[in-house]
Amino acid sequence: MNRRYRKTIIAGNWKMNKTLTETKAFAEAFKPLLNRPKWCEVVLCVPYVNLQAAIRLFKDSKVSIGAESCHYESTGAFTGEVSPEMLKDIGVKYVIIGHSERRQYYNETDVTVNKKVKAALEAGLQPIICVGESLEQREMGVTMDLISYQVRCALSGVPAEKMRKVVFAYEPIWAIGTGKTATSAEAQEVCEGIRTIIRKKYGARVARSVTIQYGGSMNPKNAFELLSQPDVDGGLIGGASLKPDQFMDIINAANQE
Ligand code: PEP
């Protein structure tokens, strides 16, 4: 983390978990634990149907609410989809774009990721752009080539002045939901690499202001070490964000001096 230049963001990704009743129960248990996070912003990305309830439930807290995806058009004949404008209109602040599960199961490509990033920024949302390699790609030694391609595609046509709103999440696919975590050195190496790509495109001032998270089986035990790396500015957390005490422990790790 480098708190001088950029925000630390701890974000939960609930995926397809929690009914409305369970969302309310989480808020009831979590809010009393949340003793004014000093350094980091806390975000919960929840299923579309529970966004409005989550916004209401966390209205008077420090928690911002995010969606887990969006379409790239603002209106139209796209049955089942939700536009960035719709999300912004109800008070959503962040949106995850290009999560590996969307890439794997729902045909998300680097081209659609780019369209969604631009549409989200246009609507006034902050995209959390996920990039990451598979185990095979890591073993082939092409991790940074792939990450560079994903980052450059995602940012194609994004002007420098919008970069203040952009968040990246480095999520090695082999670490998501598997209990396997990248070492802090591996996480640092790729997060630093992402910052270098941003620096080459936008210059040093923009690069040092962008929050770059790590995601992949982050938990209360490994959070502090991962977050201590200079270019790891937060976490995108799946499993551990479903449990109020575990999520809070990760936030506390980010808040340590
Ligand atoms: C994720 O879904 O973005 C994620 C990192 O999941 P988990 O923490 O469960 O690995």
What does this structure look like?
- By secondary structure, the protein is of the alpha/beta class.
- It has one domain (8-254): Aldolase class I (TIM Barrel).
- 40% of the residues lie in helices and 16% in strands.
- The protein is built from eleven helices and eight strands.
- The chain has helices spanning 20-30, 51-57, 84-89, 100-105, 110-123, 135-140, 143-154, 184-202, 204-209, 223-227, 244-255; strands spanning 8-13, 40-45, 63-67, 94-97, 126-131, 167-170, 211-215, 234-237.
- It has an eight-stranded parallel barrel with strand order 1-2-3-4-5-6-7-8, surrounded by five helices.
- Strand 2, helix 2 (51-57) and strand 3 form a beta-alpha-beta unit.
- Helix 7 (143-154) crosses helix 8.
- The radius of gyration is 17 Å and the shape is globular.
- The model has no long low-confidence stretch (mean pLDDT 96).
Task: For the structure shown, list the relevant keywords.
globular; 257 residues; alpha/beta; 40% helix; binds phosphoenolpyruvate; 8-stranded parallel β-barrel; TIM Barrel; 11 helices; single chain
Task: Spell out the blueprint of helices and strands.
Elements: E1 8-13, H1 20-30, E2 40-45, H2 51-57, E3 63-67, H3 84-89, E4 94-97, H4 100-105, H5 110-123, E5 126-131, H6 135-140, H7 143-154, E6 167-170, H8 184-202, H9 204-209, E7 211-215, H10 223-227, E8 234-237, H11 244-255
Parallel strand pairs: 1-2, 1-8, 2-3, 3-4, 4-5, 5-6, 6-7, 7-8
Helix pairs in contact: 7-8
